[in-house]
Predict the structure.
Amino acid sequence: NNMAKRIHKLIAAQDEMIRAISHELRAPISRIRFRLVQLENELTESDDINGIERNLTELETLIDEVLTFSKLKSHKPDLSMSYINAGEFLEEVVQKLELANNNINVTTPAKTDSLVYADKRYLFRAMSNLLINASKYANECIELGYEVQEGQQILWVSDDGPGIPISERHEIFTPFKRIDASRDRKSGGYGLGLAIVKQVAQWHGGDATIEQSSLGGAKLIFEWPIVKTTTCIDENGS
């Protein structure tokens, strides 16, 4: 019991430290942005300013990702489970995201009458991360799908990019892990997006894995068990 209490205190202290550091980082970022606005009025050449602005945006994105991952790891939330139309859900994911490459063709071959049982909010976050990841490495096409196999609900995202070697697939969902440079060429990521996907999958009692895609690249899979419901029959048999 004492060891459990110590571990709990250490985790709480770590979370507090992450929040404090993130807060302290936001203050200088705000000051730099304010100074950039002043410089834009003084300088005619704004390429350097635009570059600084992009770097600041990346830094803010990293802070948000770190805070999100820390929050997800610290405790399991109460999931709001519901039935979701698979086809409509995947179309919504595609429509609400701005992909890294707008020339990529994204298809969603899920059956429109298929139902997914999950927490829509966290499932949307997970699938968004998978789609964003695929868009960074795909050459021409991405495919999102849904199927049921042996009692498992399976959502997946495939791309036609360079793929991931088998020897490195076990590390792809590790926080801050950056793998082969060929998949990092357009990345700009921080190695937290897929770690968040795996955490959400585990909350649903499932897991996130990777396979070779039929398109030639990587196929990232989010799967979790089907929750069986009990059918009640009244006296009239309805």
In short: The mean pLDDT is 77.
